[in-house]
Amino acid sequence: MPLHLYNTLSRRKELFTPIDPARVTMYVCGPTVYNYVHIGNARPVVVFDTVYRLLAREYPKVIYARNITDVDDKINAAAQAGGVDISEITGKYTRIYCEEMAALNTLPPTIEPHATQHIPQMIAMIQELIAGGHAYAAEGHVLFHVPSYADYGKLSGRAREDMIAGARVEVAPYKKDPADFVLWKPSTPDLPGWDSPWGRGRPGWHIECSSMIETHLGNSIDIHGGGHDLIFPHHENELAQSTCAHGGKLYVKYWMHNGFLTMDKEKMSKSLGNIVRVHELLDQAPGEAIRWALLSAHYRQPLDWSDDTLTQAKRTLTRLYTALEQAGDVPAEAAAAPAGVVEALSDDLNTPKAMAEIASLAGALNQATGPAKAKLKGELIAAGALLGVLQRSPQDWFAAVGANKAIDSAEVERLIAARAAARAAKDFAGADRIRDQIAALGVVIEDRAGKTTWRAAE
RNA sequence: GGCCGAGUGGCAGAGUGGCCAUGCAGCGGAUUGCAAAUCCGCGUACGUCGGUUCGAUUCCGGCCUCGGCCUCCA
After folding, report:
1. With 0-12 CB in 10 A as exposed, 13-18 as middle and 19+ as buried, what is A271?
2. Which bases of chain B are under 7 A from a protein CB atom?
3. pLDDT at A391 over 80
4. Are A305 and A268 contacting, i.e. CB atoms less than 8 angstroms apart?
5. Measured in angstroms, what separates residue A353's CA from nucleotide B16's C1'?
6. pTM (two decimals)
């Protein structure tokens, strides 16, 4: 089956046909860098990394941009609270973010544009919007005039009347229409700002993404992704301003939004304080296990996070790596990912189904003999590559699982040798006692093919 | 209030108008000195009430419960 993706705009799965097959473009909203990210923030990154892998398999050139928002009131607040320069905050957390995402086996995007490096482009776009009658300056602000775009509300499925009726925020006096949103706002001397035709100020949130997309990807792009909560107002506003700035040209062909990660069924968010940070989880499990856990539910479904989620992911990966390890006597044959896995992913990224296929593949590998074994091994690794897992040696995996435990490997080896001696002497009671000692160290041993191997227990 | 989504076996989580998801956990067996790993087998799962149908967890309608967005937010 050719690739189908669910489009938020049409509310249905659509056949994916790129605007230009020679240059497929995807943009995903990245983080505001003012603190460590939580596991919910990592979900879209892993999801769209998987989309990226799938696209790259099919198209020769895929340009994937993921931005860094490095100008924001929260950054200003963090800098002020710490008594440091803003760049210190953004630099630190950008670096940490990139490291953490890499630990989740996400490929680096083609481009990681920073908002502060696109101020002139933002100003230019705002000027075009003013010239086109879609925006106006007022009291140092520039606002997008929502009634100037007839299709406003189409993406989020909101009627104007409902929005006005539901408006809970006091409307700023300089707004011509309550729904108008900020493109540019004035800065005080102690805040970061740039000179502009409207005085010293800084950009509004939505214009950043529109501008970076225009700069790096073009007027029309294939896929725009992000979390569900970005549909309104962020993506709705982006859609309005970009479409208006480009004379009505198509802005995004496929809008994709991932569902939320919840904690006890409630949205994980910094404001609720129920967050689990990625760097904390990386102390508990390899990034690969976190990735597997994030992909274990379909991306549009909610995923409730618990300790058990991660434990199960670890166990499943251990089973898969064990299958690879047991096939260690044959080299992996160069193979393409099996059709079942590709089919599942092509159906709007059905990762749970792809995982089920991978599990059957591992089962088949465990039973295989002869040439089939090398082929299945290659297929399992190729399938894993599409999901961004199973790309290391089983030994590396077992070591990584035990990495957060202090295991004295020399002691383990000594005990294994002692047990081997006891077994050779048919002193099984003694051998079992030694095995209990080994287990007490948090180590599982396996006697296979005349050899004893060991790995860390979970 | 408006818009959107969800309710599947002990847990996680796909999917389908009639037959198997898959993984973890559990039980039984094979294998093993015993284990571990692996393999085989097992368990009357689809919120609720109606409707359509030869047949519905799957389609339609009502209801209940939960969550999200409407304000910064992945």
Report:
1. exposed
2. 1-6, 11-15, 21-25, 32-40, 66-74
3. yes
4. yes
5. 14
6. 0.95
